[in-house]
Amino acid sequence: MNRGLFLSELLGAIADRGRQAIGLPRPAGPISPEAMRRLCASLLSGKGEASGVARAREILERWEGLDASARLGFLHMLRDSFGVDHARLAVAVEAYRAQPGEGAALTLHAAAEPARQELLRRLNLAPGGMATLVRMREELLGHLADVPDLGVVDTDLRHLLSSWFNRGFLLLRRIDWSTPASILEKIIRYEAVHAINGWDDLRRRLEPRDRLCYAFFHPRLEDEPLIFVEIALTRAMPATIGELLADGRPLLDPREATTAVFYSISNCQEGLRGISFGNFLIKQVVEDLRRDLPGLTDFVTLSPLPGFARWLAGQQGDPAADEALRLVAGDSWQEDETTRRQATRLLPPLAARYLVEARTASGAVIDPVARFHLGNGARLERINALGDLSPRALRQAHGLMVNYRYLLDDIEKNHELFAAGNAVAAAPAVTRLARASRAAPARSA
Asked: Which pLDDT does position 279 carry in this prediction?
């Protein structure tokens, strides 16, 4: 029996018994904000486990029935009514100052925790509670730009979700053509890099022996993938996505492959944004592949540059950038042979500068995909002009793609250097391209 399903059914039974024990009626009709606040307060003050599960279920069922405005009001309530007890905290601070020690420190720590953290922990006990809390954070993230003071609620949710979704709880599963259709439908829907155009396209990515897909799952979310990676087994590092996804391409015996290409990594749950799974996923998959296919010696990516076009547009006044922007200004520049040739010469050095040198105001590498792979210890290996000519890639990166290489002996060193000072590990050819983009004036081919 599915362990996640068993746990969900068990919690449901406990909730039903708890509801009967405390005389809690089934949710019916709308609920006022004050009644919702009282329900939350009663959950915090209650001691019994069965009644607690019942109340948690009641709150989450009520939350699911709220409209968008009322859900926003619920988030405001979490912020305003279930924060830190400042009077209690002040007493704990004075006690610690008067007599520092482990006991006083623990009391201070407990007093500093907002009440909503314990409320959220108890809500997580309800059947389906974790999935609902993930959806709740997804809604919260959608409001942060307009209501930044909800950030304190997000901090608490993210803290708890980071604990509940740590690597020790995650299950790695192979996704193939025999995987249940309910999961395969989600793979199609969640694919975030190279759109899957229906079942036939998905089959081409999963069924051949030289194509693989792995996903992380959590036992409490049953059949909801958290993140998945698509892999092509090849004999060389690819330069274009077309050669990996082409219909009718020649198939390769996995035993003859030397290279594993991670060509798409998709996060599935917006409510878990900022909670890192990808680094664990890649490392676990590399370990499994090395065990099952010892002929694999090279682990690389074929990755997008989602921020390059926006960055390039901000470089106006730089001769090379101005020339490149002039070339790619039209909607169909890639269809003209002369323009393609000129863009192939001008764009990669500028992209090398973007990846190696460009920084945010806080000093971080600008490109989010670069931050992910470099932070995992990969090396920036190669920049490929005309790597992806899909409308999205042309819009975001003028068709460029990047290879990052995971050199197993250098991963830890690269990771430490990047973590310490955003140092970009790059192949010599890429470093030369970055230098050339600043040194050489633009010229016409």
From this structure: 84
Q: Is 441 helix (H, G, I), strand (E, B) or coil?
A: coil
Tokens 């993938």 — which residue? 225
Q: Which of 152, 149, 120 is nearest to 40 (CA)?
A: 120
CA distance between the termini of the chain: 66
Residue 117, Cβ neighbours under 10 Å: how many?
Answer: 16
DSSP E strands, 250-296: 259-267
Q: Maximum distance among all alpha carbons in the chain?
A: 82
Strand partners, 401: 384
Can you spell out the DSSP letters for 307-329?
THHHHHHTTTTSHHHHHHHHHT-
Question: In this structure, is residue 444 part of a structural domain?
Answer: no
3-state secondary structure of 348: helix
Query: What CA–CA distance (Å, rounded) separates 268 from 225?
Result: 6
The 379-384 sheet, strands edge to edge? 171-174, 211-217, 227-234, 259-267, 298-301, 401-405, 379-384
Q: Where are the beta strands (DSSP E) in 283-385?
A: 298-301, 379-384
Buried b (16+ CB within 10 A) or exposed e, 245-278: beeeeeebebeebebbbbbbbbbbbebbeebbbb
- The residue segments making up the domain with residue 271 are 168-301
* pLDDT(368) > 80: yes
Whether residue 369 is predicted with pLDDT greater than 90 in this model: the reply is: yes
Whether residue 445 is contained in a domain is answered as: no
* 38 and 106 both lie in a single domain: yes
**Of 269, 301, 333, which residue sits at a domain end?**
301
- The Cα–Cα gap between 135 and 195 comes to 23
pTM: 0.87
Structure tokens, 97 = 């100052």
Which one is predicted more confidently, 222 or 7? 222
Mean pLDDT computed over 236-252: 95
CA atoms of 142 and 5, how far apart (whole Å)? 30
- 253 alpha-carbon distance from chain centroid: 32
The one-letter amino acid at 55: R
